[in-house]
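User: My instructor asked us to take a sequence, write out its structure as tokens, and then describe one feature of it. I'm not sure where to start. Here is the sequence I was given:
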Amino acid sequence: MGSKEDIRKKIKMKMKNQKGPERRKRSRIVHKKIFLNKEFLNAKRVMLYVSKGTGEIETAPIIKKALKMGKKVVLPVTLERDRDIKPVYLRDLKSMEKGPYGIYEPKGPLNRRSAVLKDIDLVIVPGVAFDRHNNRIGRGKGYYDNFLRRLPKGRSKIGLGFRFQLLDNIPATKRDTPLTSVITD
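Assistant: Let's start with the prediction itself. The structure tokens for your sequence are:
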């Protein structure tokens, strides 16, 4: 198995070494699965994330399609001091700017409305690695674990990743919040 940091390094290298056309092709497979997913289809308010461009599943097509489907899209805004994220409704795709870690976040007057946690039906979560028990390893700062712990019980939490990011087992602690499921290519 190995430590979380060892797993992070190994998987990040695989993500980084993946060629652009291959990543886009594999991302499209995940998109198709999401667009057929019952929890996604039934959700009125979906929290997504903006992919960082570091070899992750590309999320822009999911965000655009969710908006086109009439869903309310919520994106995370980084609260660096609190090591947490604030869910904010996305109203204007053009008013995005890079947050503290270089990840695009909603900014500007149209994107200021916070989402109430109980109103979010589904959270789609990034990760570096996942396992078959729906555990995840993130980037190591704990932002998503802090956020996911606050969600009301029964909320669906889906991780997105490539097949090579799904391992048999990863080390998990009490502070780690397991997901509902993981979708890969």
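For the description part of your assignment, you could build on this observation: The first helix runs from residue 4 to 17. Try explaining in your own words what that tells you about the chain.
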